[in-house]
Amino acid sequence: MNTKIQYALNKDSGDVFAHFKTYEHLIDNNSGIRDNRTMTFEAQQSAAPFDALTETKVKLTDPNIDIVNMDKNFIRCRYRVALSSQGYGWGAGSIFNMSSAANNFGYVFIGFKSAAESIFIYRVFWNGNTTECFNTNSIYEATITRAVKPKSEQFGRKSMYTTFENATSKKENVCGVYVPLADAFNLDGSPKTFSIEFEGIIQIDDILPFSGMSLWPRCTHGDLELQLQFAFRRALVYCTVNPFEMPVYSQNLLGFASYNSAIQNSVKGQSVTNEIIQAGDSGNIYIPVDVSLSEDFPYKYVGQQVRISVVSGSILHCSTTVSGYRIKDSEINNLRVIERFNIKCKHT
Question: Is-above-0.85 flag for pTM?
Fold first, then answer.
């Protein structure tokens, strides 16, 4: 038997914990558990799927995590959006080609500049009570927080941010989806409705009240919740995909030896909108056109005016991922002392 336990049993009436607390200070030095935790929670109210204009509430903290890493938490959503499209000046009998072969290179990007811009209204709840921290038009706040994010971070975060450079090159690091032109438009440019689905990841620190927050001491300050309402009409965007900027692997889809030069010559001098376009506004994108089949590459691309608008939207899935760690009970007590001191100073 361990000599210390034997001593405790003989000298302290068998109370091992009393002995360790008095003589060894093991309880004070090792109280509580310190470990890293990551937990995922589904939306608590209006559980998905729900209409985009329906309010839902998500957790930002949990009793099993003492200190929450707010800057590492995120909300994961899966969106479904119904859209309408139209091409201008195409007309019946046009030579626009929407065949599957041409669409190996013909795409339009549709999504968000930042997943946080899909939030229309938010309100922060503290310990179950509503607070004055809310915004009824948060897309402008999200634009500000995105503007101060380092460009390197926006380029490398899939499902979080979209830059025009990534979207027009058909890169994976975007918040949205690439839609083949044949699925997005009718051959004659007449109005068409279609639906898309894609995932968005909202960093908690992209929401302005949490943008400067790295840690939240849930063990002393309590729980936080976020009530959300989404809106897509002003947040959704689209842009052209430049066939020449697409990854080189695409050249194998058609087997044309002169792929690079043919595409490059095709897109030169075309009038296209070289920036992200707001849904509901018109812009010019690359559209494939039939030319002589005797040429090595029987398609060329022209800049053509189109419009894509939002009809309706819904959330198919919504959850939060909360990360942080537990701390020793003695450290929690220290935090409580600091909290009382801060409150006292605030009132004086």
Answer: no
